[in-house]
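Working notes for the structural subgroup meeting. M.R. asked for a predicted model of this chain before we commit to crystallization trials. I am recording the input and output together here so anyone reviewing the notebook later can reproduce the run.

Input as submitted:
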Amino acid sequence: MSPLGLKSGPERLLWFALALFSALPFLVAPLPILPDLFTHIGRYHVMNNPGDRWLTQYYDFDWHILGNLGVDILMVWLGPVLGTEKAAFLIAACIPPLTVLGVYNMAKARFGHVPAATYVALLPIWSFTFFHGFMNYWLGLALAFHVAAGWIWVRQRSAWVRLSYAGAGALLVWLCHTSAWGVLGLIVAGIEFSNRRNLRQFSLEMLAWAMPLVPMLVWRATKGGGALAESWSLHEKLRGIENLLRAEWEWFDIATVALLLTVTIWLHVDRRVERDKAFRQAALALLAAAVLLPSTVLSSYFADVRLYAPLIIVALLAIRAVPKRIGLALAMCGITLFGLRIGETSIGWIQRGTEIEEDLAALRVVPHGARIAVLAHSSECGVWPLAGRNHAPSLAIPRRHAFVNTQWDIPGQHLMRPIYNDGRGFNDSRSVELFNPAFGCPGFRVRTFLRYLPRDRFDYVWIWEAEAPAAALGWLTPVYTGPTSRLYAIRKSANPDTGG
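Returned structure, recorded in token form:
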């Protein structure tokens, strides 16, 4: 029975409304502040313009199968139709609603209705890793919830149906993102282990879900590079808890994390609460994985912290029933806090999106094919909201077909890599970050950046939240000043030994 006293039809409509509401920030903001997405958009544009005379000089694109292709595949079709930026923002806007409906379907498939605690499970959908712009992962995670819900329906069917469904579902989610496939596997393992005491039978049932291991091994053997796993850090894991709901308002976000964890733990220890064994085992498996995994797996950062959101979601899905007088309050609390988080995100995105668009207006004075050296603070440096100013300049790629040193060069992780300054420095995102003495954020000082910059390889210098020193104005000409950034043209006739 619905904790809100709703029948199946009205309850379904309510969840559909919640799904639509979850996309509100994308509808009201001039620019969605998902930092990594800006850099992904640069890759999508190169992907869909393979013969461009500028982009082919600056970036190398190599199509191959890997477990990190979710949005990329969709962009092949949508990008040329809507334009790179609009298509990417539309796909990103669909991910929260798809995730909301995935949570709903899992609850309905397992219990036949939506328990009260499932409404609280909405909170981690807009979490730190989504705000960071981990689009492929979150698309894969949303699909994983739907695939897991479907498995609950088909697991009683014939062996052939189960095998086909498991293989196709696992491959689909793995193509989106390897970590999302891992989450799916742990959810399904929890469901199967709770119903099969025989270890042999359990292992055979899970074998089909392991099918993506074949393309993964091929990927690692032929294209994959970088470390398999590295950097286990207790500090980063604890910091990930604090950052779990990091959005716009620090005090509100941290207080909500504290409340969310308190409620989740209470629901799992209170004797009056009825819990589902399958989802509880899946949550425990996710908790163990989050604790044991290092920060980087298969060159993918936040491999452990990105499990926190699905861990909390599944842990709350495990709450089958609570005392009736608590259920209504629990559901209303979840809906209210979810609404407040969507509201704070919308307000923050409107403010910062407007500001960044004014900074990006600098591109109006930049010709096609320009080469731009960017210097900006890391997204996580200093302020609580993820700023994204070290990623926003990547929009120079779709808007001006430019070279910017903001793209990643991570072996085996993406289809594209920057090649223009390969081996010379100032080629990828490692050369962007600006040192911040107030917060201890690592990076270049402005003078150091300008001193070592190969001036003959660039046309512009774009500095965010800082400005060039007076000594550098002998070879830099200010051409645009935005709210937080300054664009300078490099005078090619300048003496290369000029200070700066």
